[in-house]
Structures are given as C-alpha cells and as structure tokens.
Amino acid sequence: MKLTVARIGRAHGLKGEVTVEIRTDIPEDRLVPGEAYETEPAQAGPLTIAGVRTQAGRWYLRFDEIRTREDAEAARGVELVIDGEESDEDEAWFVHELVGLAAVRPDGDAIGEVVDLLSMPAQDVLVVKEPNGHRAMIPFVEEFVPEVDLEGGRVVLTPPYGLLAGETPEATGETH
Asked: How far is 37 from 32, CA to CA, in rounded Å?
C-alpha cells in the first residue's frame, strides 16, 4: 500500500520551489535533502529532494527534477508516497485509516462519518460529513477527539458548540 507523506502545492518563485501539504507527523525526519520519493501519479516521479526550508509554519521543497516555475506548476497535486502498511509514528493515523470511520459522541450518538483529514498549520483537522450533508471541521486534538478506535470503526468526538450544524446551546448543555 502507498502512503502519502506530502502533497505538492503551489509553485513558489521561479526556480522550481514548491509548497507542500504535510501528511506526516515527522516531516523533519522524512523530508530531507537526498531523499527520493515515488509519486502518485507514478508518471510524475520519482522525485529527489534537493532542498528544504520552512517559513511561518509552511514547508517549501526543491527537487532535482523540478527546475523551473513551469515544472513546479505542472507538479501541483502530485503526492510523495512511501510503501507501508501501518504508521511507524506513535499516536498517528493515516488518512486512509480514518476515512469511513463513524463519528460518534461519548454516549454513542451518531454525528456522521469521517471523510477527510486536512493538515493545517496549527494542527490536523478531521472533516466529518453529517447526515444533513454539512461538513464539520473538527480540530484533531485530544480535547475534541479523545478516542480513535480503528478496530471498532469509530472516532469519539466532543466538539465545542458551534462546529456541528443545527446545534443549539440547549442541546449541548451549554449556556451563553
């Protein structure tokens, strides 16, 4: 199985540098100069990291095979992948492990289904599709996601008031 480490974003500058969306908890270990990655789609790679820098929480990479802004723009959306069956990171889950899990409250009441995991600058965010079609974005922190039960096929959520559609303060027991 191919697991995504990062996804190439926008071109930055004229010499082929790109932004990347990080999909690993240990980017400083995985994204190092000289490291070569297979790509998805496969015809885009392999790509070898020539340079790495971070600025304001954003990661920028240069690749030996991408030298111009045009090449960088053409690479947008390409994923850097590794072979693997499970994460070697503690307390970490891959997107494919979370998508499809039932999202429930601690008492077992259904909230919806996990449809994506977004890597944001501050923390990852679970995207949960509610039965009414609303997509709630829940910060993937222990306070709001106290339990991930892969074997049970569910995540337990305790989102703050206002993140789910149709919530009222009375329904959540909160007062304002």
From this structure: 11
Which helix (DSSP H) or strand (DSSP E) does residue 73 occupy?
helix 69-74
pTM, two decimals, is 0.53
Pairing of strands 58-63, 2-12: unpaired
Contacts 24+ apart (CB under 8 A), 63-71: 63/16, 63/18, 66/16, 66/18, 67/15, 67/16, 68/14, 68/15, 68/16, 69/11, 69/13, 69/14, 69/15, 69/16, 71/16
The reported pLDDT for the residue numbered 73 is: 93
Q: What is the pLDDT of residues 138-164, one digit of tens each?
A: 888 889 988 988 888 999 998 887 788
Round to whole Å and give the CA distance between 75 and 9. Answer: 8
**Chain segment 108-143, per-residue pLDDT in tens:** 888 999 988 887 767 788 889 998 888 888 888 889
Which domains, and CATH codes, for the chain? 2-83 (2.40.30.60), 95-172 (2.30.30.240)
